[in-house]
Amino acid sequence: xxxxxxxxxxxxAVARAMKTMxxxxxxxxxxxxxxxxxxxxxxxxxxxxxxxxxxxxxLPKALENCHWVxxxxxxxxxxxxxxxxxxxxxxxxxxxxxxGSENADDQVALVFGREHSGLTNEELDHxxxxxxxxxxxxxxxxxxxxxxxxxxxxxxxxxxxxEQKPNxxxxxxxxxxxxxxxxxxxxHLEIALQDxxxxxxxxxxxxxxxxxxxxxxxEPDRAELNILRGILSAAQKTARDDSGENSAAR
Amino acid sequence: xxxxxxxxxxxxAVARAMKTMxxxxxxxxxxxxxxxxxxxxxxxxxxxxxxxxxxxxxLPKALENCHWVxxxxxxxxxxxxxxxxxxxxxxxxxxxxxxGSENADDQVALVFGREHSGLTNEELDHxxxxxxxxxxxxxxxxxxxxxxxxxxxxxxxxxxxxEQKPNxxxxxxxxxxxxxxxxxxxxHLEIALQDxxxxxxxxxxxxxxxxxxxxxxxEPDRAELNILRGILSAAQKTARDDSGENSAAR
Lengths: 250, 250
Hints:
The structure is a homodimer. In chain A, 48% of the residues lie in helices and 9% in strands. The first copy, chain A, has eleven helices and seven strands. The longest helix of chain A is centred in the last third of the chain and has 22 residues, at 222-243. Chain A is an alpha/beta fold.
């Protein structure tokens, strides 16, 4: 998944990089120019990946139905997300999507940002983890398609090197929570924190970002998310009884 | 080391790929056009690698002083050389060049062939082993710079993996939470859940066990644990105001 790509040639090069590693589902969020002859030229024989690429206005729309979302970042950010190497990311992605499956990209989204500025913090808020590709300290200028090449190479290596292993957590796919479950939870959390007087949305969003990171790291299943939402509802009920409010929305 | 490269743009992209991974010694054997403005443009900030590149007429001349020579091949050849994955190659290259050294390219040569036809069998005769980058069976068209990117990425990973990794979250030891911090949190959580009417300690303890597992997985640091306790206190305050209780213990 590419966000805000400026140069169409890079989109083509990414399609080629993906296809050599056996991946074919490309999503584009707000590309500057697409479709474009330059993209097709650079894709070489991978133009089928371009033709089937889906284009979205916003990242949240592109992420619907994704279970695990990984952003990429070259920068070292002050407020850090759980950070993975490409290899760790690949191992985890394959475990989540199911061993031996080539459809890792059905459920796992790898999100690559703009050529110069990467992903915004708001975009990273949708990610459960961040991959950072190790580079030389004095020259971090990794080309977009090269970054995709490295991550997809690790994915392919992880897919082909592991034998069929039982799912370590034994969880059922239906237990997994997707992006819209997460957003529902965070909206609930934000309102509940206001109800108990802990959070003021007029103040900066740093608190919500920290909580997102924290809960993403915990990787709750559906039953656990339901417990958390039950706790939020109980806290809200107390707060409502207290203040005499009676908002049906809550 | 690039042999018989046709497109100067690829030479520039290779320089960039190498430099991001901390490698700077590029040798060119019989390049079709070099130096060339297109190479410099594609090198981005890695033009120093191009300026310092050495150009040779033949592969044997370029390989003088090299201890271990590895060719690359996408084809599956009938007469096979010892075949390595990029990862195996990187491990061996680092072992030969000496751990912790960034000068693996002083003694180890990685030889990449022509864009379309690769290396000839005569050229492979000079190699001690061959690296084959795993690709999808139906599309092996790996770009030259992408191939270099993958192999140099593995080299960098092999070089840095033995070194002490910096703490990824940059956290200080004093930020880590210990067993008594955890117990304080869980006691607080249990009381708060009773206060908001969500938890009845007369019933089995399964809920608390699930929550323990969930929060342990999140691996919060001290600041995050303080946020969680702040939320619990806010919920308790709402509950206390509601019920008119005034327990000093809370």
